[in-house]
Design brief:
alpha+beta, nine-stranded mixed β-sheet, 3 helices, 208 residues, single chain
Length: 208
């Protein structure tokens, strides 16, 4: 990303405030109600973590080379050492994590959403897919402005609300420095990106 600080996920997975979505309610430890808030999705990451005593004691982040097979890692740990989950059953120590890093451009607050639930995986995969397609059309310096949202998901316990990153529009980052401070023009930061035409999507424009 041009001229913006790098998020080093090799050192730690969480950067800024930890953002959670529980039954459709978005928030952090300091901000109780963030549902509907619009943030720039800076990047995504996938990781696996080994949990012990309700805390992550080891984290492996996919930096491009892939991750070890989580079933093999869990299989190497005797089930007698597994801790009980919320359902009262032994819970595999290694769990997936799907992370999204988000920026509030109004005050530069950074947030990390990281979770390993099925709902989090669906939201993460949908966002990653949309980003991949738009960057194929508009280049790598476009980022989605997302609304913290929720969608209904069927589970074995009935309908539940899962997290959803609803894309409001797309922004481009660039320029030779950060945005001006004090209310001046902010063309270097988060410029709206034009929606691709059908011809651009198909790469099939016919000249006349």
């Amino acid at each position: 990303m041009t001229n913006l600080p790098a998020i080093n996920i090799t050192e730690r997975l969480i950067h800024g405030s930890l953002l959670k979505c529980i039954d459709g309610r978005w928030g952090t430890q300091d901000e109780a109600d963030m549902a509907g808030k619009q943030l720039i999705a800076l990047m995504t990451a996938r990781a696996i973590q080994r949990w012990q005593s309700e805390g992550a004691v080891e984290t492996l982040v996919d930096t491009g080379a892939g991750l070890p097979d989580i079933d093999d890692l869990n299989g190497a740990i005797p089930q007698s050492e597994w801790e009980l989950g919320l359902d009262g059953q032994p819970r595999p120590p290694w769990q997936p994590q799907y992370a999204v890093y988000l920026l509030d451009t109004s005050d530069a607050s950074l947030y990390t959403f990281a979770n390993g639930t099925t709902g989090a995986k669906i939201a993460w995969e949908r966002l990653v897919d949309r980003i991949s397609w738009m960057r194929a059309l508009r280049g790598t310096q476009v980022f989605p402005l997302v609304k913290l949202d929720s969608k209904v998901m069927k589970t074995k316990f009935g309908a539940k609300l899962r997290p959803e990153f609803t894309i409001v529009n797309w922004r481009g980052f660039g320029g030779s420095g950060g945005p001006p401070i004090g209310g001046g023009p902010q063309n270097a930061l988060a410029e709206p990106v034009k929606t691709p035409t059908t011809a651009e999507e198909l790469q099939d424009e016919v000249p006349f």
